[in-house]
Design brief:
heterotrimer, A alpha/beta, B alpha+beta, C alpha/beta, B: alpha+beta, OB fold (Dihydrolipoamide Acetyltransferase, E2P), three-stranded antiparallel sheet, 9 strands, 36% strand, globular, C: alpha/beta, Aspartate Aminotransferase, domain 2, Aspartate Aminotransferase, domain 1, seven-stranded mixed sheet, four-stranded antiparallel sheet, 13 strands, 38% helix
Chain lengths: 443, 126, 475
Amino acid sequence: MGSYIPSNETQRQEMLDAIGLAVVEELYSQAPPNLILSDGPNIPEGKSELEVSRMISGMAEENVIFPTIYRGAGAYRHYIPSIVNAIVSKETFVTAYTPYQAEISQGILQSIFEYQTMICQLTGMETSNASVYDGATAAAEAVAMCRDRKRTKALVSAAAHPDVIETIKTYCWAGNAKVELIPVKDGVTDIEALELMLDTEAACVYIQQPNYYGMLEDGERAGEIAHGQGVKYIMGINPIAAAILKTPAKCGADIAVGEGQPLGMPLSFGGPYLGFMAANKAMTRKLPGRIVGETRDSNGERAFVLTLQAREQHIRREKASSNICSNQALCAMTAAVYMAAMGPDGMKEAAAQSMSKAHYLASGLNEIKGFGLRYIGEYFNEFVTECPCDSGKLLKHLESKGILGGLPIAGGILWCTTEMNTKAEMDELISLVKEVCANGIIV
Amino acid sequence: MSNPSNLKYTKSHEWVEFTGETTVKVGLTDFARQSLGDLVFVNLPAKGDELTVGESLGDVESVKAVSDVYAPCSGTVTAVNEELLDAPEMFNESPYGAWFVEMSNITDQEELLSSNEYEAFCKEEE
Amino acid sequence: MELLFEKSIKGRGCSILPECDVETAALSEGQMRQQELPLPQLSENDLSRHYSALERRTHGVNNGFYPLGSCTMKYNPKINEWAAALSGFTQVHPLQPDDTVQGSLKVLHLASKYLCEITGMAAMTFQPAAGAHGELTGVMLIKKYHEDRKDYGRKKIIVPGSAHGTNPATAVMAGMTVVSIPSAPDGCVDIEKLKGAVGEDTAGLMLTNPNTLGIFEKDILEITKIVHDAGGLVYYDGANLNAIMGIIRPGDMGFDCVHLNLHKTFSTPHGGGGPGSGAVGCKEFLAPYLPKPNISVCDDVYYQQYDCPQSIGKVKSFNGNFLVTLKALTYIITLGSEGITDAAKNAVLNANYLMKRLAECYSITNKGICMHEFVITLEKEAKEKGVTAMDIAKALLDKGIHPPTMYFPLIVHEALMVEPTETEGKEVLDEAAEVFLSIYRQAIEDPEWVHHTPKSTPVGRPDEVRAARNPVLHY
């Protein structure tokens, strides 16, 4: 059993002697004796490192890893350049604490400053914070930022990711604020319906771009309509798509948020991921969480420091607008290294290929009877097709071939491609699906 | 710095200048300046806001702390000091020259001290 | 040191992707990005050197003693990192069918089982991504509980004055009002004030035990009873669990729900400020309110249960910071029953030993035994000599020791909170004590000297006023 306690018996005894106690148990004399567990917790005995590694490997092997993936829906398999893991697994970065002591934390602070800059470059927005937990919580925090004394209602597109909608609803219920869903029409947010929903209670409009179905929304129009009624505009964006799509800033967003996982983080069964938040000038001081700023030190040298801390909970306590304390620092660094490794050309290439391959796959599937595209319109790297057979059985069949197919939703399938899906793989998928339908292998 | 005798003071370290019978200017005293340190940001109410005596009308931020500014009386905000919003350091340079808000329709004042009473009160606090 | 953008040279880049093997799809004019994308252009060598330079300007647990009170900077075992890098865990899509993710579901289930044993709870969620996130989830459980009982008047959360800022901030985010009760002179909860504060409008009390002064709340059973008798629930802030894990269970102390900081107590690394994990556990009666899905098992087969009609919903997408939960599980399996208890005992032993050594010069607020952390105050030295907690902290930086937590808890003036953790050997504590004491002596003799520390760090004291008044938040 390992416990990572270096002091041996003799040293522990020396310490007890110095304190003037006979046994370690006396340190708990303040606690009511009937609370003290006589036997320790009811969990198995400790194990040696070798035994632990076998046990953990065993569990890892119980998972199925698919060599080919066509599923997105909020988590995307993009290629991660090898430099990313080499850098973010450096022990000092991994084991450092939050950079409150700026003098010895310039490494972390500068890396966050660089991350903040890149998020601003990607979104076109004025300020970025040091990140929050994930895209869903970023959306919920952005909604809270928009509330004031008179306006507290959130209008959220029903075409946003279900987990994002659910998280916004939970946070709003907690904060005693209303949420209304803007209906979907033909796979995109129904802008006409939105116009009718904007009233004096509405605080913000949240649109996802591309939306959950992969469709491209009219980002600029939604913003115009919202602002016309004095309502704030939040866009939840895909950071890879952002390389080639009109920026949230150009669409007039007051706040841009999103899931940063595609920027170098592996799928990992859902986490740790990354929530980015960027705001225009007016909303900057309402951003929750940590922010790094540039300043000078006592010698006039450039230095970075956590700033605008008087917004945060450790100072404002119950007057803070959010309780958030941690950011996802190492994930933010991951995103920065990824964006720097890919560079502007690489980012655009990853985006263009993700989108192009989706269109290739869609037209191939479209030719199979019953697999038509459900929605007409522009889409990025995801699309919904109908499914004429039992989607569960079809997908199981694909799984048996090492393929994780699209996500079954509402009688159809939500497919996704990234730069990782080759033409050959997609051709194979198309012929497999054709085969299944033609031969009625599964019905 | 001594406290100007033409002003009134509160126990929460605001100064009050009666610009008319029912209009006042409000700021923070030198004592406040000493305990707050360098101000980095000021949060003020909006023109037209109704304030209630004893309630917070805004706050001031230094690097590591936030402090409320309390309304010495009830009334309506007629002006906020935009210059102070842009340059909070004005307060550190001259606390009695840096007003925060102007109010009108004053009612319900709390107990206001004269400059001598306030000086005595501050000595006790220390 | 230059920023990536300052090192950028047009035309540089890494060769990451092949040419596209399908026809390029076109975007309409209206959707196209018109703005430049000015990300830096660098070679892989440039990047590698840049981050190596940043690493040298960072201080991790691997560089030296890190006695940050309330943060539990214990050693981060490398086997945890190995586990979290296994492709069997990293390559799993969160929306794969349950029968293809039995390994990951088992990880979550086992972690829940062991942590419930350690905390005396019946059910657990790993969805919250950090301590504050866990706090919000826990208070939401309390809110939902009262709503379900149609007891809509319970809107107050009681918080001790010594609490961490996240506690009151959390209560407000959960739509509650905060009632702050000042501590008794000994730093513990003032029982009389608590009795006066509870009533029909009490939703609950948020408490950590040991408290933020490193003292065990000996009246804890009375405290939880007072709140329960008034109809409220009691929430355990698990930030200080390292002092008592395996020895005392929050559930036995009367707490109804808890949050844990896996990145503190359970050795997962801090990563420079995250990712962490704020697991939330609760007693059986609160279990239906936990975020969905919950992980269930039937005949040795694990599945994700989404049919949770009373759930508060979701606090994050998918299942929380899965890899962090995995690291914590690896740690718990390694330590086992005896190791968990040993860790707590030695954390407390180390703290008391260091406290004894530092008491030679420093004023310690703790009288008698402390738990896993203790608080030094420089109030007297600040008044008499102008030597502040900040000064001592900055002087420590020159000696390669990360300073203790500064200016917390707020109820102590000029505070430094020290938590050595159990993973430091006696000789490290002795060496650290010598450094602390010599800095003290030198500072008292020559306050001017200490005001100008640190001298040997990559940068000197930053101008924080300038950073806040004129924020420059990007290049």
